[in-house]
């Protein structure tokens, strides 16, 4: 008890110190100075689940060990495959309890003991809970009661050999399924009593290894320029030695550049962040190779790996059309997708419930060959300091990202952290500070931690920016976007689409402390550039729904679309007045619901999971908001413009 009191005293002191730190930081910022002081708002903002709170709960004394307990893991092979569902059976339990749960932990030597010093770490999140529990965050967790046969003890056992044909001790068992992907490090399953609130370790399984922890996985295609004659392929492997991509009919080969990041690369403030501490997981090595001598709008077969680590399955990707290409061009755009578990895990860190359906719907379009490129504009994996979640995200998007350029913009959940140079000082990246994002998603940016770039595909020039980095006039990013948009050759790419993460216009009100919109200073600096450069369409995410505006500037409608012969809203940019904006953050995160108050500039609002499908010719841009559940179109609009002679 003395220890606990001492700890609480120290913890309180440290928490006050952390508040002081935020206070000092806030006073030097013009952005939402109260934000760092609000535990409740932060909790809502980052959707902390019961599971995530696990690390903040107090450890109690464990009941005596039950020596009959057993954990059997049934895998398809003697060692774990790159992807499989394993059945975990816990047996030998005399008294089934609703508080029994099982954790999947990696690496196998991770410390799942109580780790009271971790209490210090949570002050920075604004959370007032007491001690963290586990020193290392489990990958997955599920209550045994999620097997409906567990609590009623429908599956009985008998541990003590029968005497005279009678069983002296009846025991019960539960079986749960866990989805495992190859995240390279060994796995163990731990049985806890006491629920998530007061967990107590009862038993652990044997260690399971992956058959090939060096397997080349999660190939991801991206564009490096607007010629579409060279494309980047990135992939993940446990092996550091360079590997190859082999592509095309003549089997051309390019060798990978290898990069990685370490715990030391993660951000810290006064207190260690999740990414640097209990959420860390070794990312292995990220390989990246540039495939050259390609033709635009052409399909190539490829595989990647090496003789030493093995090869990926052979698949195909298609290059996008080159800048100025007269052909039609189709793309998908969305924000805030993340990932969700495919198994019975009752809880997991930061789940985005719509992501599975959205990926499935997009995958169908990609497989039909109807899409040339994908733009995911911020809030990518929501790993937010729990690094193994990046593997799950890369696995989820693989059917899409391995087939066409998967282009990204950075969001708050990739970049923001205190004292890290982000514009916003909330700890939304959990200490990642953009490092994993930039390593996994290698875009043709201006440089390290300068995640802005442009890319042209067919008739569209995309200007991709970061709302999380300095955007003020004369800042490097401001100067870049100003020059980039001014330099667009509109006879070659008549359409200009501007994309970032936090929106300028949304009907979602949020709060004074954490408004859903981008900071007003962004609007003041950047919106005039959009008008001056006759931007056609502005895409943002961050708010988790779909909303489309009139042609808008300075909060006022400057023009309205007319209805074409099909009744579709059509913006006539022959008589340009201002860009229209669309919020497209409806790809996975729990949806934001609209209130009854409708802004005069808001022309369409849909709070359903889905994505934006775009189709471009030189004269017309057509867009559809696709409902991922039904595949039906919830909103359509066109932008038309006569071609510049
Ligand atoms: Fe966001």
From TrEMBL:
Residues covered by the Calcineurin-like phosphoesterase domain: 331-546
Residues annotated as domain Purple acid phosphatase Fn3-like: 78-212
Family: Belongs to the metallophosphoesterase superfamily. Purple acid phosphatase family.
Domain Purple acid phosphatase N-terminal: 224-319
Record-linked CDD domains: FN3, MPP_PAPs
Keyword Signal: yes
Limits of the Purple acid phosphatase C-terminal domain: 578-636
Enzyme Commission code(s) on record: 3.1.3.2
Protein name: Purple acid phosphatase
Signal sequence region: 1-28
Keyword Hydrolase: yes
Pfam families: fn3_PAP (PF17808), Metallophos (PF00149), Metallophos_C (PF14008), Pur_ac_phosph_N (PF16656)
Keywords from the named record: Glycoprotein, Hydrolase, Secreted, Signal, Zinc
Cofactor needs: Zn(2+); Fe cation
Enzyme class, first EC level, given as a word: hydrolase
Lineage: Eukaryota, Viridiplantae, Streptophyta, Embryophyta, Tracheophyta
Quaternary structure (record): Homodimer.
Natural source organism: Cucumis melo
Family annotation (InterPro entries): Calcineurin-like_PHP, FN3_dom, Fn3_PAP, Metallo-depent_PP-like, MPP_PAP, PAPs_C, PAPs_N, Purple_acid_Pase-like_N
Subcellular compartments: Secreted
Reactions catalysed, as given in the entry: a phosphate monoester + H2O = an alcohol + phosphate
Major localization listed first in the record, in broad terms: secreted
């Amino acid at each position: 008890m003395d220890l606990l009191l001492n700890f609480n005293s120290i913890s309180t002191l440290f928490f006050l110190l952390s508040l002081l730190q935020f206070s000092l930081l806030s006073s030097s910022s013009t952005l939402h100075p109260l934000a760092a002081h609000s535990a409740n708002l932060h909790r809502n903002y980052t959707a902390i689940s019961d599971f995530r709170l696990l690390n903040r709960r107090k450890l109690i004394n464990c009941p005596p060990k039950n020596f009959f307990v057993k954990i059997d893991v049934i895998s398809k092979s003697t060692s774990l495959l790159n992807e499989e569902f394993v059945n975990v059976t816990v047996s030998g339990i005399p008294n089934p309890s609703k508080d029994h749960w099982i954790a999947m932990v990696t690496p196998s030597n991770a410390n799942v003991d109580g780790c009271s010093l971790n209490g210090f770490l949570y002050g920075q999140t604004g959370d007032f809970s007491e001690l963290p529990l586990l020193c290392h965050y489990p990958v997955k967790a599920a209550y045994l009661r999620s097997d409906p046969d567990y609590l009623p003890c429908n599956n009985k056992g008998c541990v003590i050999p029968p005497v005279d044909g009678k069983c002296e001790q009846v025991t019960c068992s539960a079986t749960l399924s866990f989805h495992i992907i190859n995240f390279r490090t060994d796995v163990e399953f731990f049985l806890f009593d006491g629920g998530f609130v007061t967990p107590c370790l009862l038993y652990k399984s044997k260690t399971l290894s992956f058959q090939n922890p060096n397997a080349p996985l999660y190939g991801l295609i991206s564009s490096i320029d607007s010629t579409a004659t060279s494309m980047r392929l990135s992939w993940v492997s446990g092996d550091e030695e360079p590997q190859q991509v082999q592509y095309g009919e003549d089997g051309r080969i390019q060798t990978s550049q290898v990069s990685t990041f370490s715990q030391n690369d993660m951000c810290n403030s006064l207190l260690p962040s999740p990414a640097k501490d209990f959420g860390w997981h070794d990312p292995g090595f990220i390989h990246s190779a540039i495939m050259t001598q390609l033709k635009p709008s052409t399909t190539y077969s490829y595989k990647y790996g090496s003789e030493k680590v093995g090869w990926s399955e052979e698949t195909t990707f298609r290059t996008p059309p080159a800048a100025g290409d007269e052909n039609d061009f189709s793309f998908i755009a969305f924000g805030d997708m993340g990932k969700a578990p495919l198994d019975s895990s009752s809880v997991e860190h930061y789940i985005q419930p719509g992501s599975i359906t959205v990926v499935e719907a997009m995958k169908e379009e990609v497989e039909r060959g109807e899409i040339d490129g994908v733009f995911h504009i911020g809030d990518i994996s929501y790993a937010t300091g729990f690094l193994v979640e990046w593997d799950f995200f890369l696995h989820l998007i693989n059917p899409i990202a391995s087939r066409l350029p998967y282009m990204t913009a950075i969001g708050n959940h990739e970049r923001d952290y205190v004292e890290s140079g982000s514009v916003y000082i909330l700890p939304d990246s959990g200490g990642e500070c953009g490092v994993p994002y930039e390593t996994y998603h290698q875009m043709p940016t201006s440089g390290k931690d300068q995640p802005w770039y442009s890319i042209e595909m067919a008739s569209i020039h995309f200007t991709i920016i970061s709302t999380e980095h300095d955007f003020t006039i004369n800042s490097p990013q401001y100067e870049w976007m100003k020059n980039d948009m001014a330099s667009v050759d509109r006879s070659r790419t008549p359409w200009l689409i501007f994309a970032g993460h936090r929106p300028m216009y949304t009907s979602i009100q949020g709060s004074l402390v954490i408004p859903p919109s981008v900071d007003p200073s962004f609007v003041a600096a950047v919106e005039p550039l959009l008008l001056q450069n006759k931007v056609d369409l502005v895409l943002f995410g961050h708010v988790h729904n779909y909303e489309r505006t009139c042609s808008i500037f300075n909060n006022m409608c400057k023009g309205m679309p007319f209805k074409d012969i099909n009744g579709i809203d059509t913006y006539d940019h022959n008589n340009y007045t201002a860009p229209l904006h669309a919020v497209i953050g409806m790809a996975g995160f729990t949806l934001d619901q609209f209130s009854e108050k409708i802004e005069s500039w808001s022309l369409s609002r849909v709070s359903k999971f889905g994505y934006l499908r775009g189709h471009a010719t030189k004269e017309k841009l057509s867009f559809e908001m696709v409902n991922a559940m039904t595949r039906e179109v919830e909103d359509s609009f066109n932008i038309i413009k006569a071609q510049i002679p």
